[in-house]
Amino acid sequence: MGWTGIRDHAGNRVLRNVTGVVETGLLARGTLLVEARARGVGRNHDQLVDVAIERGWDSGFRLTLTPRRFLEIEAVTGRNRMQHRLNLGTIEDGTLVRVTYSWNGPARSGLLTAELPEQGRIHQLEVMAPPPLAVADLHGLVAGLHGAEIGAGVLGVAVADQVEAVGLAPGFARGTTVDTEGGPRRIDRLQLGDRVLTADGRALPVRWITRRTLPAIGSLAPVTIPASWFDATETVVLPPLQRVLLSGPDARREFGSDAVLVAARDLPVAGVPRPADEDGAEVAWYNILLDEHACIRVGGLWAESLYAGTIAKHPEILATTPLGALPPGALPMHRQVAQAVVPVALPAEEPSVAPLAPVLVRRA
């Protein structure tokens, strides 16, 4: 089924019944995603979520950033208790942190992942024999029930009833037009081997296409670049951190360079927030892997292809990403980016500075 509960910073909620599982049951496998801006991590514990809903038996979980820059997870289900710490290295206040905790009870395996998307860093810790989490606890977090607390820096939370992939940039919304050697083609209809046009005048073959349906929260929520902006020939929907090639007078005036890669949310005229697909909770994102990192033409814009970096050197992490299905040895190394990159700036008005407001829950 995928994402069964989603809660964003604007107070929107979607809560779906988990197939074959009653609300009083345990979720044998699943994923909890929390995205937040770190707050006060050098001085205090920054509690992301803390769920302890009253019922006749012990259950609950907690995610915390500590002053020593550890991510801590604690969970209890009946007699099963778990506590782990993941070292994140240096984290400053305002750092965007995306935490993904996934568990697979039948396989007796779990994974705690912390991504720092603005820095391109990913940290992981394997969790052995994780306890299953209670469906009521997970959906209570989404619904904002008493006993389910969310930290002030949290941008959103989401729950899935399956193990979800982590890492790597989402890319472009379904339906985005990509210029190929054979003419424009929708990204969701591209095939491996199709040759896409690049900003330096080449045509490179598509080595892999990632497709992920993700909750529209935080840095995964879509922004829209309207047609006619930055030479776009159609409306282009991007995640906020997807980088666009800015060149000519705009680039020289704003950044003092003839051509730079700029995150969509940091363009001189910011992208306009757009509701996500279907029920407003999720977006189907696609991205294109080439042998080299390059700028490709999408809806008239020049934007970067998927940057894999040197993740091929870390097969244990690679296996948990959308590129994990690639045949061994088929993943190229991207040792440099296609253009100079403007560092991602913290938005002046970050909506996550206030706690998520409670609203009514809609069940699908």
State the main characteristics.
about 375 residues, mainly beta, seven-stranded antiparallel beta sheet, 3 helices, globular
- Strand order, biggest sheet? 2-1-14-4-9-10-11
What profile does the largest beta sheet have?
7 strands, antiparallel
Arithmetic mean of pLDDT: 85
Termini, distance in Å? 12 Å
| Radius of gyration using CA atoms only | 21 Å
Helix content: under 10%
Q: What structural class is derived from the secondary structure elements?
A: mainly beta
How many distinct beta strands?
Answer: 28
Number of helices: 3
Our estimate of the beta-strand percent is 35-45%
Unreliable sequence segments: 348-364
Instruction: Name the shape in a single word.
Output: globular
Walk me through what this model shows.
Helix content is 5%, strand content 40%. It contains 3 helices and 28 strands. The strands form 9 sheets. The chain has a 7-stranded antiparallel β-sheet with strand order 2-1-14-4-9-10-11, covered by helices on one side.
Task: Give the topology.
Blueprint: E1 3-8, E2 13-15, E3 26-27, E4 29-37, E5 46-51, E6 59-65, E7 70-77, E8 80-87, E9 96-104, E10 109-116, E11 121-128, E12 133-134, H1 135-143, E13 148-150, E14 154-160, E15 172-173, E16 177-180, E17 183-186, E18 195-197, E19 203-205, E20 208-215, E21 223-225, E22 236-238, E23 243-247, H2 249-255, E24 259-263, E25 272-273, E26 282-289, E27 295-298, E28 301-304, H3 315-318
Antiparallel strand pairs: 1-2, 1-14, 3-12, 4-9, 4-14, 5-6, 5-13, 6-7, 7-8, 9-10, 10-11, 15-26, 16-17, 18-19, 20-26, 21-22, 21-25, 23-24, 27-28
